[in-house]
Amino acid sequence: MKSFLLVPVATLALTGCAWVQLTSEGENVSLAGVDVIGNCERIGRATAKTLGKIVAIERGGGRLQEELLTLARNEAGRMDGNTVVPESLIKDGEQDFGVYNCPR
After folding, report:
1. How do residues 35-74 score in pLDDT, each as one tens digit?
2. Domain map (residue ranges) of the chain
3. Which of 29, 35, 38, 62 is in Cβ range 3.0-4.6 Å of 73 for a Cys bridge?
4. Taking the domain 2-101, which CATH number applies?
């Protein structure tokens, strides 16, 4: 009986964890809308992917979006970009971002 309760309790504990940490490179990258990047140089694309489900339970949209943005910011920082712009909707825990170098 105790093992039956272990899975729901473990699932709840895991959903409260921060899976993705912002790197020092990612700290210098901001999120922008497509309307702000007119004077920016596009340097590439980052595809961020994280878990959309944990033990067949859909994850909250806010937390999922936050993790995808953090992953995209980290990747953009590695690419020497300073701005990311979402280019797709989230699908199966994955989202595409344009990476730009914008004047500051």
Report:
1. 999 999 999 999 999 875 554 445 456 888 999 999 999 9
2. 2-101
3. 29
4. 3.30.110.70
Q: Mind spelling out the 3-state secondary structure of the chain?
A: CHHHHHHHHHHHHHHCCCCCCCCCCHHHCEECCHHHCCCCEEEEEEEEECCCEECCEECCHHHHHHHHHHHHHHHHHHCCCCEEEECCCCECCEEEEEEEECCC
CB atoms within 10 A of CB 34: 10
Task: Record the pTM.
Answer: 0.74
What per-residue confidence (pLDDT) applies to 15? 42
